[in-house]
Amino acid sequence: MTDNDDHDNTAQPYLTSKLEAPIDIITFRVLLAYKPQGYNTPARLLRKKIGTEIDGRYETIGSVPFDREHKLYYHCLINPEPGYIYKIEWEK
User: Fold this and answer.
1) Of the chain's two ends, which shows fewer C-beta atoms within 10 Å, N or C?
2) Exposed (0-12), middle (13-18) or buried (19+): which is 87, by Cβ within 10 Å?
């Protein structure tokens, strides 16, 4: 778990997790308290093979709805396939 502050507004709107060995679960929980009331845009869940070019394309594997009441994205990947970088990306 990390707690990140973007006081200078330079943070990119995504989190990644590099998975080299099998695990049971990856949990993404992104709290965006600054989002206005009524915001409801889903995040994208993506992945790309480890070792691809830095600018290599991610493939979309799903979407994550925005929880308007708690102003967050929350998603669990069960038994994610190793050998990939997993990414959740949202609108800034």
Assistant:
1) N
2) buried
**pLDDT for 40-88, tens place per residue?**
999 999 999 998 876 778 999 999 999 999 999 999 999 999 999 999 9
Tell me the whole-structure pTM to 2 decimals: 0.88
Query: How far does Cα 17 stand from its chain's mean position?
Result: 8
Q: What b/e sequence results for 44-66 when a residue is b if at least 16 CB atoms lie within 10 Å of its CB, and e otherwise?
A: bbbbbeeeeeeeeebeeeeebeb
Q: Strand order of the sheet with strand 72-78?
A: 25-31, 72-78, 66-67
Q: Which residues contact 31 (CB under 8 A, 6 or more apart)?
A: 70, 71, 72
